[in-house]
Amino acid sequence: MVISGKELSAKLKAEMAAEVATFGAKYGRVPHLVVILVGEDPGSVSYVTGKAKASAEVGIRNTTIRKPESVCEAELLGIIADLNADEGVDGILVQLPLPKHIDADKVIAAIDKEKDVDGFHPLNVAALWQKQPCTLPCTPKGILKMLRAAGVEIAGKEAVVIGRSNIVGLPVSKLLLDANATVTMAHSRTRNLGEVTRRADILVVAIGRPKFVTADMVRDGAVVIDVGVNRDPETGKLCGDVDFAAIEPKASVITPVPGGVGPMTICCLMEYDRVLPAAYRAEIAPNRLPRTLFASGALPRKTRSENFGFFSALPFPGLRRWGRAAVFLRPASSNACPAFCRVRAPLMSIFRMLVYRYAHGLYMKARIGIQKCFLCRLIRFIWCNDAVFI
After folding, report:
1. Would 272 disulfide with which of 7, 276, 317, 353, CB 3.0-4.6 Å?
2. Are residues 43 and 109 in the same domain?
3. What span, in angstroms and rounded, lies between the C-alpha atoms of 5 and 7?
4. What CATH number is attached to the domain comprising 193?
5. Residue 61 to residue 67: CA distance in whole angstroms
6. 61-73 in b/e burial notation, b at 16+ Cβ within 10 A?
7. Which backbone phi and psi does 367 adopt, to 5 degrees?
């Protein structure tokens, strides 16, 4: 059985387009994705073009910012800072790879975690491994969707992942592990690699070498997911990390290249928990709505004076003091002065630590349910930059 990523992604995008069509009436605008492209790498240009096309199919507004390869790191970070503060931008994507003179890790970390549609921000990565809500990387999420669409049972199966990159290998192994598979990670330096891969019920290959996995490395009836995109040195055509023609007769399920994982990667980029945060969070987490909803006027936002008044009315002196301090430290809008935001960050870190120490002491002394309620509300307000009291 060959899983067509094109067909599955087309079906999912049609469902997303129907959902996005309702956004104008609900929120006053459609979601907005901004893609930053540095240089003219053919592969990167192709990916960015594909993302723009997919955005148009779904109904998402797409803006591509193109910069020459000579752009300096400081200018790129400045662009990201402006997009972070822009209420009209829901998602930010920096197309990788970047030129050697730019620190890619620094650039990715500069993106607002809530606008990181690739799922590469350090906090999103940490949340994935801590089993916390996060933005999942597109390719691993697309792989899991393909397996489930093909009816592949993951729980209890032995899965082997060849490749250990932060983009595919590591996160897909974590998702398979969370789906109750027994996961083995392998790579180009794994000894007796063929013996390892022949044990696999599910084999995911993301090593970046054309036709690296041959028929003798795959057991009969295995599920083979080919993530690699390479040029065949003999024909010059696109091919994967797997010898598709030789392995297809043995595999129960296999993905082609092209037309397999690639379309699903772009499709997952458009999903509700990425570029469509308004609908997703309005339904799933009403107390953690994005700034864009407040900016559009779709939801009333509590003013600073209203929040100040709420904490002033609390019956406990300590809570009143900490609550008023939190309102003071929180900026009135995300367009606050950048200098204030830089000073606010370390202040908030210290403030959170003090609040938690105070809250713990109060809880240990009182242990009264109503005080716990007020404490949870206060801590959530401080911790979630855009939390709103309803």
Report:
1. 276
2. yes
3. 6
4. 3.40.50.720
5. 20
6. bbebeeeeeebeb
7. 55, 40
23 and 98, same domain (yes or no): yes
Distance CA 215, CA 98 (A): 35
Q: How far is CA 379 from the centre of its chain?
A: 25
How many other β-carbons are positioned within 10 Å of the β-carbon of residue 386?
Answer: 17
Among candidates 94, 92, 116, which has minimal Cα distance to 34? 92
Q: Residue 332 pLDDT more than 50?
A: no
Sign (positive or negative) of CA dihedral 203, 209, 210, 213 = negative
CA quadruple 180, 184, 185, 186: dihedral sign: negative
Assess whether 237 and 330 both reside in one domain. Answer: no
- Please tell me whether residues 158 and 118 are part of one structural domain: no
How many separate domains does the chain show?
3
Q: Which amino acid is at 167?
A: I
Phi/psi-derived region of residue 356, left when phi > 0, alpha when psi is between -120 and 50, beta in every other case:
alpha
Same domain, 222 and 332: no
**8 A C-beta contact, residue 90 and residue 277:** yes
Phi, psi of 154 (to 5 degrees): -95, -40
Examine the domain organization and report whether 201 and 126 are in the same domain: no
Q: Cβ(66)–Cβ(72) under 8 Å?
A: no
Encoding tokens for residue 140?
């691993």
The answer to whether position 291 is within a domain reads no
Instruction: Give the structural domain span for 42.
Output: 5-138+266-282
- pLDDT, tens only, 206-251: 998 999 999 999 999 999 999 988 888 888 888 989 999 999 999 9
The catalytic residues are 51, 95, 118
- Looking at the fold, whether 124 and 11 belong to one and the same domain comes out as yes
Interval 24-62: pLDDT, tens: 787 788 888 999 999 988 778 878 888 888 889 888 899
Residues comprising the chain, all counted? 390
Q: Work out the angle between the directed axes of helices 42-58 and 5-20 (0-180°, nearest 10).
A: 50
How far, in Å, CA of 261 to CA of 242, rounded? 13
